[in-house]
Specification:
The chain is mainly alpha-helical. It has a domain of 75 residues. Helix content is 80%, strand content 0%. It has 6 helices and no strands.
Length: 230
């Protein structure tokens, strides 16, 4: 690409991007008139672009960087780790292409197990334990605020304890003391959901204001100059 073509591309890049954003914004706002083809097309474009980005990242970072590129550079690796990685990738692909091939089930099961263990470990080490420690340390600094934080942490954790005892033919029920403490935890959960909903509403209103400003900027910069006032 020569310098003139590059300069021309850069000149039209910003107006083209602004026009695409303008049209997509109008397509999304068309939902205010009811469900229609323009809104569904905007959703389809968003889903397609997101799926394409994820696919490119997986193909480049996993298949190309970890499998194809090492084979091209040094040939088929002979290390135990590399052979296991290649075999795992092949069995995983085989599992999805052959609709649940039995040889690929251990690979998918191992992947699901590692993912679940990572999520549980991250929630325990990164959220629950630090939350309890922070709530306990607040008591020494601020007795009232720390006590409320500690009460909210403990009662919320007890609220999510669903173990119960079955007596006779009745359905399993939790102990009375767990129900009482869980009711306090439910109040904290409700407050948390209310705060999160308010934050989501503020974020949505901020996004709406930003899009309206973008529409006005596009009209003021690119459309109004086409109709000069005499």
């Amino acid at each position: 690409m020569d310098a003139e073509t590059l300069a021309l591309s850069m000149k039209w890049a910003e107006p083209a991007g602004a026009l695409i954003g303008f049209l997509l914004t109008l397509m999304v706002f068309s939902y205010l008139l009811g469900d229609n083809g323009l809104f569904r097309a905007a959703c389809a474009i968003f889903i397609g672009v997101s799926s394409g980005l994820v696919t490119v990242l997986i193909v480049y970072n996993v298949f190309w960087q970890r499998l194809i590129l090492p084979i091209i550079q040094v040939g088929i690796p002979t290390g135990n780790y590399s052979l296991v990685a290649i075999l795992t990738i092949v069995l995983g692909i085989w599992f999805f292409l052959a609709r649940g091939a039995p040889f690929g089930r251990p690979v998918v099961g191992y992947l699901a197990g590692v993912g679940a263990a990572t999520a549980i470990g991250g929630a325990l080490i990164g959220t629950i334990i630090p939350q309890v420690e922070a709530a306990g340390s607040l008591v020494a600094v601020d007795l009232l605020g720390g006590s409320v934080a500690l009460l909210g942490t403990v009662t919320t954790l007890i609220y999510f304890n669903f173990r119960g005892r079955q007596i006779g033919e009745q359905s399993a029920q939790r102990a009375k003391w767990i129900e009482g403490i869980g009711w306090i935890g439910q109040i904290f959960v409700s407050i948390t959901f209310g705060v999160l909903f308010a934050a989501a509403l503020v974020a949505a209103l901020t996004a709406l204001a930003e899009r309206l400003w973008a529409l006005w900027q596009f009209i003021g910069v690119y459309i109004l100059p086409l109709f000069p006032l005499q």
